[in-house]
């Protein structure tokens, strides 16, 4: 039992070290900019959200700033377009069932397409 606990504590300490290890912030800003310039648009958006320091470095470069802003705008637009729109009539008040040929009402499954 103590072996597992000791291993677990070791894992926690390594994890804690990794959480506080920010090599980009320790680099000169020029070197960090070179690294950020190599990122694709989605990775640049993620990098800008890692820390205030990373965001400041990215926003200090005119081209990266423009790329970041257009990427965020594109992501927001894609999110808006990906929402499912369901016509109001689909889930509105109960409709009266249509009588069948013999005058009785028949339960029909509704196929909803999204």
From TrEMBL:
<dbReference type="InterPro" id="IPR001810">
    <property type="entry name" value="F-box_dom"/>
</dbReference>
<feature type="region of interest" description="Disordered">
    <location>
        <begin position="78"/>
        <end position="114"/>
    </location>
</feature>
<feature type="compositionally biased region" description="Polar residues">
    <location>
        <begin position="81"/>
        <end position="90"/>
    </location>
</feature>
<protein>
    <recommendedName>
        <fullName>F-box domain-containing protein</fullName>
    </recommendedName>
</protein>
<feature type="domain" description="F-box">
    <location>
        <begin position="21"/>
        <end position="67"/>
    </location>
</feature>
<dbReference type="InterPro" id="IPR036047">
    <property type="entry name" value="F-box-like_dom_sf"/>
</dbReference>
<dbReference type="Pfam" id="PF12937">
    <property type="entry name" value="F-box-like"/>
</dbReference>
């Amino acid at each position: 039992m103590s072996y597992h606990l000791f291993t677990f504590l070791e894992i926690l300490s390594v994890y804690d070290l990794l959480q506080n290890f920010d090599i980009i912030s320790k680099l000169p800003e020029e070197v960090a900019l070179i690294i950020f310039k190599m990122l694709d648009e989605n990775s640049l958006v993620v990098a800008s959200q890692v820390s205030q320091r990373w965001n400041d470095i990215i926003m200090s470069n005119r081209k990266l700033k423009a790329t970041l802003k257009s990427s965020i705008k594109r992501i927001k637009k894609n999110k808006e377009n990906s929402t499912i729109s369901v016509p109001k009539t689909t889930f509105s008040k109960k409709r009266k069932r249509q009588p069948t040929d013999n005058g009785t009402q028949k339960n029909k499954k509704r196929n909803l397409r999204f």
